[in-house]
Design a protein that fits this description.
The protein folds into two domains: 34-110; 111-276, Rod shape-determining protein MreC, domain 2 (Thrombin, subunit H). The protein has two helices and twelve strands. The chain has helices spanning 2-24, 31-109; strands at 115-124, 132-135, 148-150, 155-162, 167-171, 185-189, 198-203, 208-214, 225-228, 240-249, 256-262, 271-276. It has a six-stranded antiparallel β-barrel with strand order 1-2-5-4-3-12. Strands 6-7-8-11-10-9 form a six-stranded antiparallel beta barrel. The protein is rod-shaped, with a radius of gyration of 46 Å. It starts with a helix and ends in a 7-residue tail after the last strand. This is Cell shape-determining protein MreC. Belongs to the MreC family. Residues 81-108 form a coiled coil.
């Protein structure tokens, strides 16, 4: 029995070797081999398509995830760039304003002996009957009541109340000489100081500044630059108020009245100057 098994094993080995030698030397396949190869190829093709589709699906999901991460990173970069651009524009605008303020003080030093304390506007009133702003300078900084306040463009108003760290400024549009809350702003014309004179007040009905009590022989004309005259010992001389827009005869025909366009931009007050005259002790 044992010899029979050994004999069968040897016969099988001989047949296998013979078949290997027979097939290795041939270039053409027999029909059974072709059938087996075609069957295997067909089965591989049937299995490869769904497997490939599934693999492509998961590969696309991975790519979509990468695209989403890239888009999120781009959005964050754009948002950061926008914030940086806004911050840059804000700093550029502030630097421009401060440079104008520096040029303003240097220019004024050549005209008079006043000192200018730069202050930030930290608040405004919403009361239409009392037009004031709050600044971040107070008594510790040398600010006192009835000091004039201006910008690089023109007169803003006068300090009405002073605290230790802040002060309240009454706007020139609230300085009505005919009321108990106001005081006269005597004015003249730049280049015609010895000939022109008038009083500045605010007309609530028209919403404009008016220069009243102008002599009929006064040479004041449309386009002239109106400045403080220094009379009255309240507003220092030479602070720009505005420009003459028109001139007409007054109510009683004895004097003339002029409409003045303010130089200061009251809706965009950020930095202002408190004017310190030489006879006022500064900080």
């Amino acid at each position: 029995m044992r010899n029979k098994r050994l004999f069968i094993l040897m016969i099988g080995l001989i047949v296998f070797i013979a078949l290997m030698g027979f097939t290795l030397g041939r270039k053409r396949l027999t029909w059974p081999e072709k059938f087996i190869n075609d069957a295997v190829g067909t089965a591989q093709g049937v299995l490869y398509r769904p497997v490939g589709a599934v693999a492509d699906f998961f590969r696309d999901i991975g790519r979509l995830s990468d695209v989403y991460k890239e888009n999120e990173l781009l959005r964050q970069t754009v948002a950061q760039y926008t914030q940086d651009q806004i911050r840059f524009n804000s700093l550029e605008a502030e630097n421009k304003r401060l440079q104008e303020a520096l040029n303003f003080t240097d220019r004024q030093k050549q005209l008079d002996n006043y000192r200018y304390l730069i202050a930030q506007v930290v608040g405004t009133t919403s009361n239409p009957y009392e037009k004031t702003i709050k600044i971040n300078l107070g008594s510790r900084d040398g600010v006192k009541a009835e000091m004039a306040v201006t910008t690089t463009d023109g007169l803003v108003g006068i300090v009405s109340h002073v605290s230790t760290f802040t002060s309240t400024v009454k706007l020139v549009t609230d300085l009505d000489e005919s009321s108990s809350k106001g005081m006269p702003v005597s004015a003249t014309v730049l280049g015609k100081e010895t000939q022109s004179f008038g009083i500045i007040q605010y007309d609530e009905e028209s919403g404009t500044l008016q220069m009243t009590k102008i002599d009929e022989r006064d040479p004041l004309a449309v386009g002239d630059k109106v400045i403080t005259s220094g009379l009255g010992n309240v507003f220092p001389k030479g602070i720009v108020i505005g420009t003459v827009e028109s001139r007409q005869v007054g109510d009683f025909g004895l004097t003339h009245t002029a409409i003045i366009t303010p130089s200061a931009k009251f809706d965009h007050l950020r930095e202002v100057f408190v004017v310190v005259v030489p006879d006022v002790d500064g900080p």
